[in-house]
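Translate structure to sequence.
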């Protein structure tokens, strides 16, 4: 019979020792101290569901992780937005081109002014007096008096893009009238100048011509007569 009483005595001693360590005098239930192995597993591998889970990991940080579906949705929206922006810009560019017209004698004022430098040069200035943007395409087609030939353009002066004028803006072309060393032929003095404009294709009709006034003494030119393309900068026009 003593063997059967020995086990309860030992069990009571263990319970008494546990109560003393807890400081409450009562038995500590398992809910207050979860199993270490279970807690470690929960912290290391937090539960995952369709919307993400907030939990404390091994590093001690807490946060909500976005799901793959959310990332794909944001990427799709970004791609759609980018495509929409490009499409809108393309439509705007087409619209801007459609609202432009050709610069010519009906929507501009043209002046022809000889300059001191460079020697034997003249500057053509075209000012947009219309209400729409206009394009100065290619180069001016010049005709002094009743001349039967067309001055050749300076190929090196061709701009990278068409010179476009907003209302009130000006474009320029430089004219080399004669050779500085006197090597030109058929030299003559002119009192009348016609400035022709080209259309969207080379040598096409761009609309009404202009008749800028020349100095009272006239303008001397010879066979070396050349003209630049239409340019947006005055100094560039006179550099050839």
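Result:
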């Amino acid at each position: 019979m003593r063997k059967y009483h020995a086990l309860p005595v030992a069990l009571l001693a263990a319970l008494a020792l546990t109560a003393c360590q807890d400081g409450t005098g009562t038995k500590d239930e398992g809910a207050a101290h979860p199993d270490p192995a279970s807690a470690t597993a929960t912290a290391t591998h937090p539960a995952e569901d369709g919307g993400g889970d907030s939990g404390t990991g091994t590093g001690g940080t807490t946060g909500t992780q976005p799901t793959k579906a959310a990332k794909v949705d944001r990427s799709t929206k970004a791609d759609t937005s980018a495509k929409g922006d490009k499409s809108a810009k393309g439509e705007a560019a087409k619209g801007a081109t459609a609202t432009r017209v050709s610069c010519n004698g009906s929507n501009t004022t043209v002046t022809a002014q000889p300059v001191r430098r460079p020697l034997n040069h003249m500057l053509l200035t075209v000012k947009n007096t219309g209400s729409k943007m206009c394009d100065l395409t290619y180069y001016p087609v010049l005709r002094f008096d009743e001349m039967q030939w067309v001055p050749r353009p300076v190929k090196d002066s061709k701009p990278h893009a068409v010179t476009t004028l907003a209302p009130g803006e000006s474009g320029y072309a430089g004219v080399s009238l004669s050779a500085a060393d006197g090597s030109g032929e058929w030299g003559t003095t002119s009192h009348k100048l016609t400035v022709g404009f080209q259309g969207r294709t080379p040598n096409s009709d761009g609309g009404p011509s202009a008749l800028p006034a020349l100095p009272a003494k006239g303008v001397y030119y010879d066979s070396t007569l050349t003209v630049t393309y239409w340019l947006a900068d005055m100094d560039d026009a006179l550099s050839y």
